[in-house]
Amino acid sequence: MKGMCAKTGKVLEGIAHLQQSVSDILRTPVGTRIERRSYGSDVPELIDQPDTPYTRIRVFSAAAHALGLWEPRLRITEIKMISMATDSKGKAMLQIDGQTTDNAVSLSVSFGGNA
Fold this sequence. Notes:
CATH class: Alpha Beta
CATH topology: Nuclear Transport Factor 2, Chain: A
Radius of gyration: 14 Å
Distance between the termini: 25 Å
Number of domains: 1
Low-confidence stretches: none
Largest sheet: 3 strands, antiparallel
Number of strands: 5
């Protein structure tokens, strides 16, 4: 599938397009897109919560739910929290491992800091 790079306007395809799509879905708060209020995820509202096992489970669940709804090219096999908002730069990163119709993929999405 092809699409447009949000930063440069150039054509994106393959894993690069999938990475951009996953990042956009997970970084967009539900309810903020006009004409598509259900688009996005609850991850942005959870990412600044205390770093507890319960919060991590909620983040994983929110990410899996949103990607299941909005990214049909990806079948998730694992989601990991690489860092949480408690690190020195206030940044969190999710690593999403999965399968497309052609390849195994490992994608990462950063939140906070200079994400």
